[in-house]
């Protein structure tokens, strides 16, 4: 009995020692540039955890300042190699937004990268769409709002097949409403049409085929017109290309970058 109690006590002690590690909170926001307030950082951590759990992929944000001279892309790559994030385990499925505050307004870099499932669902093209959509908020110094939009877009894109454009008109609410209206109008129109009497006459009913002949026909060219449209140039921040790559640790990733 005494040996049994000793064994149970040891197991209980081990379980207590393991609890802190199990309850340790996972970090999603690495704000080295200190751009978020304490409340914003806390809220973003909570939202990132929720979106990550829902999509089974780590969704992170990194910010850096001028104290680190690396470009945002290798900075993000080295972070992934060294920290090994991933919902499914070390160096696993991850999407990362990197913000570089080394430069001045309009010359700051951002980079979106996806690893493994993140590379599949947030590929170069979808990364570019995210970059384009969060730049206005970043350029206006609305970093918190830009972060929320980033979470929302990743959440949206993770739910759409990689073969489909998630921002295409086929998935837009206005298109669904328009299609519903057209289909409804077609059904109602068909019902109204079938309610009336059937028309039994046509153009040939009163035509004397033996005595009616087409004398001649001709095509006459009247006029032509040319329309010119001026293409406006973007003078503010914007997408700056990018593309995926490989970390020094050998992890492939998608990538898209821009300036704000």
Uncertain runs with pLDDT below 50, 5 residues or more?
A: 3-23, 169-181, 230-236
The helix-strand sequence is HEHEHEEHHHHEEEE
Number of helices, counting only DSSP H or I runs of 4 residues or more: 7
Q: How are strands sequenced across the largest beta sheet?
A: 1-2-3-4-8-5
Largest sheet: 6 strands, mixed
Label the structural class.
alpha/beta
Q: What is the terminal-to-terminal distance?
A: 70 Å
The value of Rg in angstroms is 30 Å
How much of the sequence is in beta strands?
5-15%
Query: Tally of extended strands?
Result: 8
Structure notes:
Helix 2 (38-55) packs parallel to helix 6 and helix 5 runs antiparallel to helix 6. Helices cover 43% and strands 14% of the residues. The protein has helices at 2-23, 38-55, 72-83, 117-121, 124-139, 143-158, 173-195; strands at 29-31, 58-64, 94-100, 109-115, 239-242, 245-246, 252-253, 256-259. With 260 residues, the protein is an alpha/beta fold.
């Amino acid at each position: 009995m005494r040996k049994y109690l000793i064994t149970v006590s040891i197991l209980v002690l081990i379980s207590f020692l393991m609890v802190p590690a199990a309850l340790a909170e996972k970090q999603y926001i690495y704000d080295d540039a200190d751009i978020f307030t304490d409340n914003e950082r806390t809220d973003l951590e909570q939202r990132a955890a929720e979106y990550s759990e829902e999509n089974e992929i780590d969704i992170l944000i990194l910010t850096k300042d001028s104290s680190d001279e690396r470009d945002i892309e290798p900075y993000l790559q080295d972070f992934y190699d060294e920290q090994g994030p991933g919902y499914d385990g070390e160096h696993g499925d991850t999407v990362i937004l990197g913000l570089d505050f080394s430069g001045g307004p309009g010359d700051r870099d951002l980079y979106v990268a996806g690893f493994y499932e993140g590379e599949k669902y947030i590929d170069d093209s979808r990364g570019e769409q995210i970059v384009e959509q969060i730049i206005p908020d970043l350029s206006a110094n609305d970093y918190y709002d830009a972060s929320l939009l980033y979470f929302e877009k990743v959440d949206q894109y993770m739910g759409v097949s990689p073969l489909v454009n998630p921002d295409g008109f086929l998935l837009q609410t206005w298109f669904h409403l328009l299609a519903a209206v057209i289909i409804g109008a077609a059904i109602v129109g068909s019902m109204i049409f079938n309610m009336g009497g059937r028309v039994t006459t046509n153009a040939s009913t009163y035509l004397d085929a033996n005595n009616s002949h087409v004398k001649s026909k001709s095509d006459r060219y009247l006029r032509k017109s040319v329309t010119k449209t001026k293409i406006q140039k973007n003078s503010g921040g914007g997408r700056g290309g990018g593309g995926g790559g490989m970390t020094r640790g050998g992890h492939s990733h998608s990538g898209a970058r821009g300036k704000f």
